[in-house]
Amino acid sequence: MKAALFKEKNLPLRFEEVATPIPSRGQVLVKLRAAALNHRDLWIQKEQAIPSAFGIILGSDGSGIIDSVGEAVDGNLIGQEVIMNPGIGWGKNPLVQSDAFKFLGFPDAGTFSEYLVISSKQVVEKPAHLSFEEAAAVPLSGLTAYRALFSRARLRPGEKVLITGVGGGAATWALKFAVAFQAKVFITSGTEEKLKKGIELGALAGFNYKEKTGWRKSENTPEGLTLLLTVLAANNSRPCLTLLCQVAGSSSLEGPLGISLLFHPGHCFGSNFPSSAPRWVRKMNFFL
Questions:
Q1: Which helix (H) or strand (E) holds 196?
Q2: How many CB atoms lie within 10 A of CB 145?
Q3: Which domain covers residue 61, as residue numbers?
Q4: CB atoms < 10 A from the CB of 168, how many?
Q5: What is the DSSP letter of 217?
Q6: Number of domains in the chain
Q7: Do 111 and 183 fall into the same domain?
Q8: Rounded-to-integer distance, Cα 110 and Cα 140, Å
Q9: pTM, whole model, 2 decimals?
């Protein structure tokens, strides 16, 4: 089968012919119809060492059709259209992932290939109203946003929410979820085009974080903000962290760059930290 392999840091993926995998006990073989690109795939190419001399197939998101099954898997699943759940080995504690938790696509083979072998427990039926391309774009960013808003922050209808970086995957999902849940949503982004689209999706107001005046001086600045969700980029994370801590009622946090954080009054929730972040940052969930 054809696959896109990660073989060297900071270099493009290489398309090569590799052996088509065979499903083992409890696994299914999915013929992929679509795969989605996440920032995670780009960060891996910049940060990670290659786990094998043969390279690794990246890709955490995908959709396709079950082509064959291994032992102890219902044969009726063959031909079913499915989406992959990219989170593997979460563990028994619903509040925090186990040390064994990992994402599809690194270090295990991911979705940038014609076929994928995966546990039958990691596939779910594709909603009929979604195309393969639409379905492939849902899991990683969609589940991240959903968990942040509802599992961790416990968003309530009517709360005022500021979501930064709308235009990115997780932030845009968070916007749509929050609007659907009848929250009062405000957004930031780096372009007027993205802000306009965010307002079309239901945001009450948008602020361009690249403007020197800053959104806090705008007449539309939200008062009584109860929740702030941010996906921080390395080039602007320091001022965002300071602002977040002020909103949360905490002192300024002198933390590392490139961190995703969720703040609620008096609480800080860490999520999806890059591997370059210090261990204490990546383990923040344990201190909630």
A1: helix 192-200
A2: 24
A3: 2-136
A4: 18
A5: G
A6: 2
A7: no
A8: 13
A9: 0.79
